């Protein structure tokens, strides 16, 4: 069975070699992954920035050459109800001639064709531009339906004046300024879309030039590049990891393993010399920390053999004496602890609290006065003892004590009476005293409100707190105020829960 235990311990052992390999693997992985991710992000941002600049530059360039006066006239015509009705009819009948005839009647056709041909030619010259169009944005506060004026794409004429709901990513955009481009994947595929305003001579916004740069090919190339980057990073990771493992094994892991095995053979005894005792003897000549460790271990082992040979008997006597002293100190320490520990809850008792008061008074005399006292009195203890027995009452007191200790976990807590607990707040608990007090009250209120719990598990207590004030000379004065505050809390609790004022806790 002992052999099985040793085997299990050996299996659970996580040696320094494994830790070193794991550390190297994690470090190399994080470094390579970080560099690869950074390179990818920088590349993506640079490309995205290029296409966004191209989008805005194209939109601005077109905006500077469009026929503004014509667009004002066209905007007024196509926004009219008469035209919209005609447009709906043309769309239903799929008859573009209705739109052409109408624009001819209004004297806009030739300029419309010229403007559209300009957009089409521009798209033809710019390989990256996929869509180019003129659009009238809905006014702020209206439904976000924007109207198309002229489109360079091969679309029917009755699309002129067509209202379309604005893309969600441009919902809050202001068309009076350049609308920052957005790269998105929508109904028209991957596009980089941006807008530039078109103003008339009086500075009024007429429409906006919309430009969509096709990004589908770029996104595909980006994904392919990402795959190549991952594969390259993985290959680099493997190569670096193999090299690092070989280096770590040769210079660190292997020498340490040899030292560990040599140390396990060391078995000093009074009648053994260096060789018989297994003093470590390895061919380690490295001039580094591992070499220092080896030589120190070797020196320590030889000194141990020397000491054992000279003072074996003295050491046995000394050990006996030390054992006796430790046993005596332990007995005395246990007696001292028991004298100041409450037998039921395990916290400090009244004697321990009185000793704490003396320490507080000494601190006050030395000028250290940052402390507070919290008085806690368990409610309904007599009722629980009478109805459910003192065993339930003891459990109830332990539960109340646990809550106080959990809230004031950085401060000493004492049981100074049957159902009374005192916490002396210093340090962090003192600085957070108001929050801690609130949490203590809320915790007791929550447990008491849990009517599904057993009565002795519905913990409740009256609480009072006071801190050292200017004019106080003794800690007892702080305790007295905390006790008075607790008593007021108890009266309020009894009144709130319909318990007679003269009823005992």
Structure description:
The protein is α+β, with helices and mostly antiparallel strands. The protein contains 15 helices and ten strands. A six-stranded antiparallel beta sheet has the order 3-2-1-6-5-4, covered by helices on one side. It starts with a helix and ends in a 9-residue tail after the last helix.
Summarize the structure.
The protein is of the alpha+beta class.
Low-confidence stretches: none
Classify the secondary structure makeup into a structural class: alpha+beta
Strand content: 5-15%
Q: Mean pLDDT score, rounded?
A: 84
Name the helicity range. 55-70%
Please trace the helix and strand order, writing H or E for each element: HHHHHHEEEEEEHHHHEHHEEHHEH
Q: Any key phrases for this structure?
A:
6-stranded antiparallel beta sheet; 14% strand; 505 residues; 15 helices; 4-stranded antiparallel beta sheet; single chain; alpha+beta; flat
SSE map:
Elements: H1 2-12, H2 16-63, H3 68-78, H4 81-93, H5 97-105, H6 109-125, E1 129-136, E2 145-151, E3 163-165, E4 179-186, E5 189-199, E6 205-214, H7 216-264, H8 274-277, H9 289-339, H10 350-365, E7 372-378, H11 381-388, H12 390-407, E8 413-415, E9 420-425, H13 427-431, H14 433-449, E10 461-467, H15 475-496
Antiparallel strand pairs: 1-2, 1-6, 2-3, 4-5, 5-6, 7-9, 7-10, 8-9
Helix pairs in contact: 2-7, 4-5, 11-12, 12-14
């Amino acid at each position: 069975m002992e052999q099985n235990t040793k085997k299990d311990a050996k299996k659970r052992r996580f040696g320094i070699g494994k830790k070193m390999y794991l550390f190297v693997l994690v470090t190399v992985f994080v470094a390579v992954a970080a560099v690869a991710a950074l390179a990818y992000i920088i590349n993506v941002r640079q490309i995205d920035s290029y296409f966004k600049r191209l989008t805005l530059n194209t939109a601005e360039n077109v905006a500077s050459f469009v026929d503004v006066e014509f667009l004002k006239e066209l905007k007024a015509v196509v926004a009219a109800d008469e035209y919209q009705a005609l447009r709906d009819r043309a769309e239903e009948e799929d008859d573009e001639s209705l739109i052409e005839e109408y624009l001819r009647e209004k004297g806009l056709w030739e300029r419309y064709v010229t403007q559209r041909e300009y957009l089409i030619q521009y798209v033809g010259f710019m390989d990256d531009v996929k869509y180019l169009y003129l659009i009238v944005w809905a006014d702020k506060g209206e439904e976000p339906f924007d109207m198309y004026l002229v489109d360079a794409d091969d679309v029917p004429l009755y699309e002129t004046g067509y209202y379309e709901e604005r893309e969600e990513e441009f919902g809050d955009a202001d068309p009076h300024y350049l609308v920052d481009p957005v790269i998105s994947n929508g109904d028209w595929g991957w596009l980089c879309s941006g807008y530039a305003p078109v103003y008339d001579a009086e500075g009024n916004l007429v429409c906006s030039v919309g430009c969509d740069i096709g990004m589908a090919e770029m996104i595909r190339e980006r994904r392919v590049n990402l795959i190549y980057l991952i594969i390259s990073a993985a290959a680099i990771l493997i190569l670096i990891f193999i090299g690092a493992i070989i280096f770590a094994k040769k210079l660190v892991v292997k020498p340490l393993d040899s030292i560990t095995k040599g140390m396990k053979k060391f078995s000093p005894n009074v009648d053994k010399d260096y060789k018989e005792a297994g003093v470590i003897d390895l061919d380690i000549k490295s001039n580094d920390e591992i070499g220092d460790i080896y030589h120190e271990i070797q020196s320590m082992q030889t000194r141990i053999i020397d000491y054992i040979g000279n003072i074996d008997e003295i050491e046995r006597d000394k050990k006996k004496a030390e054992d006796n002293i430790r046993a005596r100190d332990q007995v005395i320490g246990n007696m001292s602890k028991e004298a100041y520990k409450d037998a039921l809850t395990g916290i400090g008792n009244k004697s321990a609290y009185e000793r704490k008061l003396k320490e507080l008074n000494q601190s006050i005399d030395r000028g250290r006065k940052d402390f507070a006292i919290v008085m806690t009195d368990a409610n309904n203890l007599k009722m629980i003892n009478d109805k459910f027995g003192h065993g339930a009452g003891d459990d109830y007191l332990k539960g109340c004590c646990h809550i106080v200790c959990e809230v004031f976990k950085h401060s000493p807590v004492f049981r100074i009476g049957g159902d009374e607990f005192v916490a002396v707040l210093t340090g962090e608990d003192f600085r957070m005293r108001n929050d801690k007090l609130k949490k203590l009250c809320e915790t007791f209120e929550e447990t008491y409100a849990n009517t599904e719990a057993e009565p002795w598990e519905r913990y409740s207590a009256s609480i009072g707190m006071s801190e050292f004030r200017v004019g106080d000379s003794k800690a007892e004065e702080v305790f007295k105020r905390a006790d008075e505050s607790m008593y007021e809390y108890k009266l309020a609790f009894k009144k709130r829960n319909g318990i007679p004022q003269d009823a005992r806790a």
